[in-house]
Each structure stands twice: as structure tokens, then as C-alpha cells.
Amino acid sequence: MSGRGGSPGPAALAPPFTDVRLQDAYTYWRAKAAAAGRDLPGRADIDPTEIPRLLPDVMLVDVLPEGRYRYRLIGTENSAAHGVSATGRFLDEVLPGTDYKAHVIALYDEAVGTRRALYSECLFLSPQRGAPERHTKVLFMPLSDDGQRVNMVFVVQVFLYIEQATRARHFIDAPPYREIVHVLL
Predict the structure, then answer these.
(1) Which whole number is the average pLDDT over 134-141?
(2) Residue 97, Ramachandran bin (φ over 0: left; ψ between -120 and 50: alpha; else beta)
(3) I need a labelling partner for 136 at 20 to 30 A (CA). Which of 6, 80, 158, 162 fits?
(4) Which residue from 94, 22, 108, 93 is spatially nearest to 57, judged by alpha carbons?
(5) Burial of 78 by CB count in 10 Å (0-12 exposed, 13-18 middle, 19+ buried)?
(6) CATH code where residue 115 lies
(7) Is 20 inside any structural domain?
(8) Does residue 107 belong to any structural domain of this protein?
(9) Which residues pair with 123 in a beta bridge?
(10) pLDDT classification of 137: cutoffs 50, 70, 90
């Protein structure tokens, strides 16, 4: 269920989510856009009291005029999974590894540039023995305060941890990270 660009519009494509939190976030984002009467909701349309179950997995990321991204808010589950509290820091300063950093920034660029939600799944397989092996599912949903320019991205990211026996059986020679699903919604 992987596809890049050129995907049908949101009404023609069934969301690929296998995690109810991502489905709930996408449904919420779409409902907020509809209620605002715009293609994209704004930050003011997102009310944390309406989505308490999602908050540990939420990130709000500022889109800066010079094309950089800065973490405005990072939920507790994401901070714990990344092992760092990056609130207030730039993505390009926090993300590890040149290739992975370029990959993540390209995902943000695509969601912002197309003004559409983007879903991605990746495997993270650490070359360090004993480090946690993860399967992450992330949904990027652009926000626009003026209805035109995307100025923030509402992100929900969840992690599943892979047991060492599963990795050894299925991902022996996998690179440190590998995108396995990419769908523009």
C-alpha cells in the first residue's frame, strides 16, 4: 500500500491507517477543516481538550519563512521515544544522521508543499546492539492560519517496538531506517 505523489484526492483514497490514533487524528483534522470552511484548519481550530487521548503522540511543528521547521510542542510519548525533549529546537539540529534528517525534512516539505496530509511508516533498526528497534507510523497534517500559507504541521507519531527475534528473522540486512509506506492523502 505504498504510493508517491500523484495520488488521488482525499475523497478517492481510503486512509491506510492500522492504528486507531492515526485514524482519529485524520478524522479530527478533516472535520476541523470542514468546520472552518477551508481546505486546511488553523492552529486555533485544534483544541487539545477535544483530543486528550492523542496528546502524548502529538507534535506541533512551526513552518518558518526560511523553510526550516521548529518543534513547538512534543508529546510525552514522542519525547520518551526520541530520548530528548526537543521543544523549541529546529528539526535540522535535532534529527540524527544526514540521510535520515533529509528524509524527515522531505516528508515535511511534501506535506507543506502539497497542502495535504501525508502518512509514512518507517522501520528504525539500530546498528547498536541492545538499542530499541522500532516501527513508527506518522501522520503529517498541515495547518494554515490564513487559509493559504501553511505555517504549522500537526503531527501524530506512534511507535511499535520490534523484538530482537523478529528483527533477526525478518530484517537481518536492513539499513538503519527504511520507509515502508508513503501515502499522500
Answers:
(1) 89
(2) left
(3) 6
(4) 22
(5) buried
(6) 3.30.450.20
(7) no
(8) yes
(9) 135, 178
(10) very high
pTM of the entire structure?
A: 0.82
In percent, the amount of the chain with pLDDT more than 90 equals 50
- In single-letter form, the type of residue at position 115 comes to R
Residue 69: domain span: 55-128+137-184
Which residues contact residue 151 at a Cβ distance below 8 angstroms, ignoring those fewer than 6 apart?
43, 62, 63, 143, 144, 145
Going by C-alpha positions, the residue among 84, 44, 50, 80 that lies closest to residue 157 is: 80
Give the torsion sign (CA, 2, 138, 119, 67).
negative
> What is the spatial distance between Cα 95 and Cα 107, in angstroms, rounded to a whole number?
13
**Residue 36 maps to a domain:** no
When divided into structural domains, the chain yields a total of: 1
- Residue with cell string 477535544: 50
Burial label, 163 (beta-carbon count in 10 A; 0-12, 13-18, 19+): exposed
Tell me the backbone φ, ψ of residue 178, rounded to 5 degrees.
-150, 125
